[in-house]
Predict the structure.
Amino acid sequence: MNDIVKAPTDFQQAYVFDMDGTIYLGDHLLPGAKRLIEELRRRGIPVRFLSNNPTKDPQQYVEKLEKLGLPTDISDISNTVVTTTNWIKENHPDAKVFAIAEEPLKNSLRQAGIALSEDPEEIDIVVSSYDRGFDYRKLQIAFDAIWFHKRAFLVQTNPDRFCPFPGGRGEPDCAAMTAAIEACTGTTCQVNFGKPSPVMLTAALAGLDVDVAHCVMVGDRLATDIQMALDTGMGSACVLTGEATADDISSLDDAHRPTWVLDRIDRLIPASAWAELGWTENDD
Ligand SMILES: [Mg+2]
């Protein structure tokens, strides 16, 4: 075991998991993920899943987790499609929204009764997101709505610079679209609906009667997963199976360090319980 690894010695009240790089990478569950989730559920401990990715809706995550052997209720999953839609519905229900987004987010906004528009003269809110159909036409609409007509403000689904893929590759994520709009308009994005925003944490723990200080956010990204936990007084566990490396964590000062660092995700089950369950590192 790497000496940076530090695992919890007790069970927590609820477990909130990032998905990509934490539970799975690409189309494969990471070692220990299945037995970990099954053991937490067997003990009746709430398990929730979060994603900053707005290109899928929660139903698509239900299908993905099911295919990977982890059947999950849709109510246990939240992502930026949900948090973005809920925030606009609660705070600006009558706004005309220009969504620089793929279909899942646009559908969700429409279903919530939000009016979508591509007419810069009437747009109130420009939503920047991870949109693989982003182009100059969309940038011009955002520019006209914000800079020329001076009526719209800018929000974003998530602050990620890129979305990691297996094999070390990746795709430009929402931060690239937001930066393009900020660069030409001189505006600043006003709200972020993804981790590390506390709106994500509220969505994750909705309906649970738990003490945040005794819950844990588990993820692979220091700037989003771990930062959200630090900002909200929640425990945090950084897995070394995705973006963050042992060197990244070693170089952090104490204020930015996760509570726990895990070489494999099933170390969330305390070592004493591993012994009772007869678990070893050779099986997952
Ligand atoms: Mg991740």
Remarks:
- Residues 75 and 207 are 10 Å apart (CA to CA).
- The chain has two domains: 14-52+196-277, 81-192.
- The chain has a mean pLDDT of 95.
- Residues 18, 20-22, 219-221, 242 surround magnesium ion (CB under 6 Å).
